[in-house]
Predict the 3D structure of the following.
Amino acid sequence: MSGWLAIAGLGPGSETLVTPEVSRALAEATDVVGYFPYVARIARRPGLTLHASDNRVEIDRSLHALKMAAEGHRVVVVSSGDPGVFAMAAAVFEAVEAGPMAWRDLDIRVLPGVTSMLAAAARVGAPLGHDFCAVNLSDNLKPWSLIERRIALAVEADFAIAFYNPRSKSRPEGFVRVLEILKQICGTGRAIIFARAVSTEEEDIRVVTVQDATPEMADMRTMVIVGSSQTRVIPRNGLPIVYTPRSVTS
Amino acid sequence: MSGWLAIAGLGPGSETLVTPEVSRALAEATDVVGYFPYVARIARRPGLTLHASDNRVEIDRSLHALKMAAEGHRVVVVSSGDPGVFAMAAAVFEAVEAGPMAWRDLDIRVLPGVTSMLAAAARVGAPLGHDFCAVNLSDNLKPWSLIERRIALAVEADFAIAFYNPRSKSRPEGFVRVLEILKQICGTGRAIIFARAVSTEEEDIRVVTVQDATPEMADMRTMVIVGSSQTRVIPRNGLPIVYTPRSVTS
């Protein structure tokens, strides 16, 4: 029995952002498991079985991967970005904790990747150059009231904020509300970045102020980054540079 | 004039975590600029000049890199981890904003990388699997009172917290105070991870509770991650698994 399970981050989209560690695990794997658009990024080859599944079946997918690894398969569970940030790693460990004790001794590794907020930040400058937080705006798995409380506290702490999963067809109202809150508490002129499909052919980046932001600027493929009170915008030809200085003076 | 400036993240240490995008920029560069331990990671070759400098001279280093790019050099500024997270990207854009207008039209790209907190999180499971924040504990560039306020608000928001630069020889007191604050406000049993030199030969990972944490567990090469109130520890042979579940129920 030499099975193992690697939970790997494919980065935001471009093959040039996939780490050699992840490429190697994929080359050694017998099975790849994941949400279908991520599995679609994996090159087919003899000896490799691709198991694509739909969204919102993360625990089923984790159980399937763990069972195969326990049977001796070399399994890679793929996420986009980094697998530990609003992705498959937590789901797999939820399944491990609830599963048979023997699963705790499986060879399970998490292979980090370039998460979406870092790729998005890189496209415009360095908006996350000072303290920041990351908030998942999907309320599938937490109460909406908690999201609102976190946003208020994050603004009070003067963090730059990276919003994952800002908006989907099934829950269009949440991001409307988020923008209302930000317009109330952030003052005028705060920079907000909408970075869609970063590093793919559909990449589209916008920089506006919170006042000018509209809900339609985001969809499920968009990373939204809101600057702190210190974040600077440098105008130039084309997209401006956005960065948060390293220093805060009291 | 075909000069350019790439601000690149080398990842936490292992060459297997350097993206192909960064490797390509390094292969095309005429000059590499950075803090000496990071420049030491770059392979020497004919046609490449290495410019290593000391810590705390980030603006001088940025000016040097920008001037060379403006003169037609192909310059890579290297950081460990991701260049946009407590690293060189913000410093370069500070220099751009204060510099000649012509610098705004230079070809400047930020090449993202695997930042330290993601590599550290991956080693123990998925402690950043739910909402989280990243706080730089160095008070070289911000007042200590702001750090304390941010920690209190981050705990109130129930974020997992990733602490960068927790402790150095020149400022040993800060992290002592951070642990005191956490012991006061986090209750007993909260998981804390000390991940030193992740992905290098000196890698050393510890998982303890906040109550059992001591300042000596961290140094400048250590990433510290404090779980949220929801973070779970799964005991097993060897290092336990630490993960923060995706769900919070109200």
